[in-house]
Enoyl-CoA hydratase-related protein (Streptomyces albipurpureus), 270 residues
Amino acid sequence: MTQDQQEDIVYEDISYEEKDHVATITFNRPSKLNAFRGHTYREVTDALQRAGWNRDIGVIVLTGAGDRAFAVGGDSTEKKSDRVGRGRGVLGIPVEEMQSAIRDVPKPVIAKVRGYAIGSGNVIVTLCDLAIAAENAVFGQAGPKMGSVDPGFGTALLARTIGEKKAREMWFTCRKYPAAEALRMGLINQVVPDAELDEEVDRWCREINALSPTALAIAKRSFNADSESIRGIGLLGFQALALYFGTDEAKEGGDALRAKRRPDFRGAMA
């Protein structure tokens, strides 16, 4: 891709940069802790595919703008029940497309994590081939607090990555885990001081870019083949989730957050 072509790319929710055979996709909504709305998923998917099939790119880096968060899940101003059926994807937002893009591009994808990686942010870290975090990074799932869940890669692939018991703990308690503990669990590859994160990721990118792109692509697809059945599980789960999002129980999580009160899921089920 030429410099002129790069200048034609205009994104609203993300920024995109190509340099030294590395494409960096930055979730650029720092005022909302880089929470994802439907438009964000579409832009990230587009950028992944743009970089993924550019032969000049050897590594893709996903990161978040600012120091407070990598990404913290869905934008609470978008009601889940209102999204369903109003766009691409089972849930009205292309979650499945973005997740598939991370896995399907034939080159390594690295999560560069500062601050909170919660909810869909944690799922993205799970999906990335590698993850390097600053010491201030915090990981975890919050879906059951909000009346939501990721019923595919965010659960089944997480279990393959950190083990069944730890994955269930993460989902069933919604606890938060510091970077050092995430490293011990195997969720991430390395932790470095906050000020050293950019250089450390650059070093990993240089190492990867010195290797055979075709061999790396074959290796990635070989790893993915072993867990590819999770894609089907996820699609089935998202179909069920679309039905669930229309219930009072699911709506209660978002309603409570907007009203700044504790959710009463059991009361909503009555």
Q: What stands out?
A: The CA atoms of residues 69 and 116 lie 4 Å apart. The first strand starts at residue 14 and ends at 19. The two ends are 57 Å apart (CA to CA). Confidence is low (pLDDT under 50) at residues 1-7.
